[in-house]
Design the sequence.
């Protein structure tokens, strides 16, 4: 029975500097940041280029992996090959003012059309007042008004003459007209003189006056109609003059946009509205008292403006837009309001575009988590994509929270490729719980967080050079590059892989650049990188330091020497933020006669997770199948993590728990100078676990604090050897024989290391040699079975009933 430690050369995989010919990264060319992401890039390219509906993209990757940069670069590369999309603008709808009309124009023509309308209104503001201020217009107005007044005068004069012929005098009074009798000389007759006339004469004069009064009333009733007729003539004259002025200015635009039917119809409506509201263009000199003023539009020309929503003038490719705050208003756009005379008013010029407008015809990139956190944003995006149009509507109105009238802008057709960025968990949850998700996001681009160290070594070095240049950092020396690559493998948790989490790499380079500056280096050196790594650990290791201090002071009980039965050192990993470290834990077990039940105290106290409980059940099955094939499994055991006051999860302690249960059963002591980690299957094979580097270093730190004896070490699964990237002090201790790493692939190998006894192999009959560890286990279980059989199901003593021990254990 010989178990040799793992060769120190397997504990750390350094970079081979001879493979690189450069002296610093300054000599290397830039490379695309999507190193090792071929699968995801292929998916993105496919999703970007396919034009069918529903083929939007979801990029699966944790934050900081550089997926935004890669997606943006790929989208921009494809956007260059596509035509620039149309401009869009909103204009006043003269038929339905509450429903602004949308006009689509060629790229860059929206700004031209907007300027043309501004110029038109400026021209009309000058031309129309000039036309109405001309001598010809004044003369024609004066002629119409003079004719109207002369007609009234002529009719009154004719009536006056006829009355005079009948010796009736027509006079004007402050209150109107009056008829008086006259004598032969047409002088008014007074009342006394009139009373002297005979009755017949008086009656004749009264009848004549009455007749002329009726004729006067009939004539006066005609005056309003004549004046209305004159007013209509004036309006016709105004329209004629206005049309001449407007036509002169608008004909050029009609000719310019002759091929654009929508704009032609709009310009015709503008022409009709200008003529209808011609007074808005003529300055008024009459002053009205403030209390008699009516609320009027402060800018009557605003309705002729053009609200340019999307302007692609000067653009040579389809748009690529990233929205950092994808709320409801930022997606769809909004309708602003302003306070005016105590109320909120709005119009089509206050319609503001959203990112869907800006990205229309191109690509819209959104963060899935930010989108889902915004109220109603996700449902709004789905509804908009399904409808294929952008309909601007306030959230209150969309939710039917208000019934007040508001603008209803015409919807704009939508043609956009949406790319969502999010964690894989978000993608899988949406796929499972949102029935519409797969219909809208058919393309999944799955980014990898690691790449092969052997295949991508040279590309990774160029990636470091590219990042340092983009972040305006110092170039890295060859030794510094090697240290970054090695640390990248450590962060990936695999000596054969490299981390592609760009944010972590960039942060490391940034901090190394700081220390290079602090140390007066023109380039980032190996020591600067190491200083950055050490300082980052120092900033975050307060909890680790306190835990290790408690072990050193004896508050937390961990033995690193001697042998104890039923006690073993297990290893776990704690992760706090971005910092992980190993923590040794004492695992103990007790065994007794029973009915084949192993009690997981962590599970019973609800401190054990499902995976940990699964590991305990597996080791229970292994014991029963391996040692109790010929007799009842008459064992009861309990296992626990001592001084554990939090959740225990994972099955990486199942190997340690099996060893400690068997040690308690056989009373064979286990070495306390060894810690062990590994997952177990029902066949007794040791399976790999996570965090192997941190676990080894955790136990090494405890041993180093208490003094290395030369016999201490850690037992790990053989399958984890390719993951080893240990700290240099651990590697050095292994090289000098002060600390050892053992790799095992079976339970028997672990038991032999822990007990110093041969595990033993079964003979042809399936029996183990009695002087081996497995033989002792088999013998003890056989003894338990014999005792159980002798006890029987129940045994009466007097009036008391004694139940078998296993029933009491239940």
Sequence:
């Amino acid at each position: 029975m010989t178990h040799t430690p793992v060769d120190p050369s397997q504990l750390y995989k350094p970079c081979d500097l001879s493979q690189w010919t450069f002296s610093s990264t300054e000599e290397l060319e830039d490379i695309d940041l999507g190193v090792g992401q071929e699968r995801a890039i292929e998916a993105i390219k496919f999703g970007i280029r396919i034009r069918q509906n529903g083929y939007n993209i979801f990029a699966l990757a944790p934050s900081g992996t550089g997926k935004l940069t890669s997606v943006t670069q790929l989208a921009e590369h494809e956007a260059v090959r596509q035509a620039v999309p149309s401009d869009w603008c909103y204009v006043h709808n003269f038929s339905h003012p509450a429903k602004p009309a949308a006009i689509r124009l060629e790229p860059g023509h929206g700004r031209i059309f907007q300027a043309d309308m501004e110029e038109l209104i400026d021209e009309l503001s000058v031309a129309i007042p000039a036309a109405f201020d001309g001598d010809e217009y004044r003369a024609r107005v004066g002629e119409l008004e003079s004719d109207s007044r002369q007609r009234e005068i002529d009719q009154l004069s004719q009536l006056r003459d006829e009355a005079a012929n009948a010796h009736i005098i027509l006079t004007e009074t402050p209150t109107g007209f009056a008829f008086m009798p006259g004598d032969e000389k047409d002088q008014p007759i007074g009342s006394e003189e009139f009373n002297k006339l005979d009755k017949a004469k008086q009656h004749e004069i009264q009848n004549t006056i009455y007749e002329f009064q009726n004729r006067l009333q009939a004539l006066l009733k005609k005056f309003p109609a004549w004046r209305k007729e004159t007013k209509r003539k004036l309006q016709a004259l105004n329209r004629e003059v206005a049309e001449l002025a407007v036509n002169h200015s608008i004909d050029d635009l009609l000719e310019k946009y002759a091929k654009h039917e929508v704009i032609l119809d709009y310009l015709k409506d503008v022409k009709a509205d200008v003529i209808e509201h011609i007074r808005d263009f003529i300055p008024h000199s009459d002053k009205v008292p403030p209390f008699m003023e009516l609320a009027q539009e402060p800018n009557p020309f605003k309705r002729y403006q053009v609200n340019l929503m999307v302007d692609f003038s000067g653009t040579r490719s389809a748009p690529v837009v990233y929205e950092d705050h994808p709320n409801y208003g930022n997606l769809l756009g909004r309708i602003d309001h302003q306070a005016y005379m105590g109320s909120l008013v709005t119009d089509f010029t206050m319609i503001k575009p959203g990112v869907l407008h800006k990205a229309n015809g191109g690509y819209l990139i959104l963060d899935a988590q930010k989108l889902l956190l915004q109220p109603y944003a996700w449902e709004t995006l789905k509804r908009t994509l399904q409808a294929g149009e952008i309909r601007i509507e306030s959230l209150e109105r969309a939710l039917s929270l208000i019934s007040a009238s508001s603008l209803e802008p015409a919807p704009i057709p939508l043609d956009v490729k949406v790319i969502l960025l999010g964690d894989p968990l978000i993608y899988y949850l949406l796929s499972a719980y949102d029935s519409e998700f797969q219909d809208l996001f058919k393309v999944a681009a799955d980014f990898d967080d690691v790449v092969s160290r052997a295949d991508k070594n040279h590309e990774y070095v160029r990636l470091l050079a590219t990042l340092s240049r983009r972040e305006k950092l110092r170039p890295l020396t060859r030794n510094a590059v090697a240290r970054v690559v090695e640390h990248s493998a450590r962060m990936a948790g695999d000596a054969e892989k490299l981390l592609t989490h760009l944010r972590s790499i960039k942060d490391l380079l940034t901090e190394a650049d700081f220390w290079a500056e602090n140390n007066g280096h023109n380039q980032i050196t190996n020591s600067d990188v190491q200083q950055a790594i050490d300082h980052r650990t120092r900033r975050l290791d307060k909890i680790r330091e306190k835990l290790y201090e408690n072990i050193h002071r004896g508050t937390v009980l961990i033995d690193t020497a001697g042998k104890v039965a039923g006690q073993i050192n297990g290893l776990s990993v704690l992760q706090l933020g971005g910092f992980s470290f190993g923590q040794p834990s004492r695992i103990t077990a007790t065994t007794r006669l029973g009915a084949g039940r192993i009690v997981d105290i962590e599970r019973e106290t609800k401190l054990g997770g499902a995976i940990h409980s699964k590991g305990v059940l597996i080791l229970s099955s292994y014991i029963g199948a391996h040692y109790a094939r010929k007799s009842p499994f008459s064992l009861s055991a309990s296992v626990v993590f001592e001084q554990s006051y939090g959740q225990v999860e994972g099955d990486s302690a199942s190997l340690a728990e099996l060893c400690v249960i068997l040690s308690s059963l056989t009373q064979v002591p286990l070495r306390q100078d060894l810690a062990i980690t590994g997952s177990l299957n029902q066949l007794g094979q040791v399976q790999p676990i996570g965090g192997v580097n941190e676990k080894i270093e955790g136990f090494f730190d405890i041993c180093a604090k208490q003094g290395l004896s030369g016999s201490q070490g850690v037992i790990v699964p053989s399958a984890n050897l390719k993951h080893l990237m240990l700290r240099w002090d651990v590697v050095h201790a292994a090289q000098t024989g002060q600390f050892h790493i053992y790799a095992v692939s079976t339970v028997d190998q672990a038991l032999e290391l822990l007990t110093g006894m041969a595990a033993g192999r079964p003979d042809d009959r399936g029996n183990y040699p009695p002087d081996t560890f497995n033989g002792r286990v088999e013998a003890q279980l056989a003894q338990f079975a014999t005792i159980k059989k002798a006890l029987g199901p129940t045994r009466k003593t007097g009036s008391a009933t004694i139940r078998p021990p296993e029933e009491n254990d239940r």
User: Anything to note?
Assistant: The first helix runs from residue 38 to 49. The chain has 27 helices and 31 strands. Confidence is low (pLDDT under 50) at residues 286-295, 795-810. The radius of gyration is 49 Å.
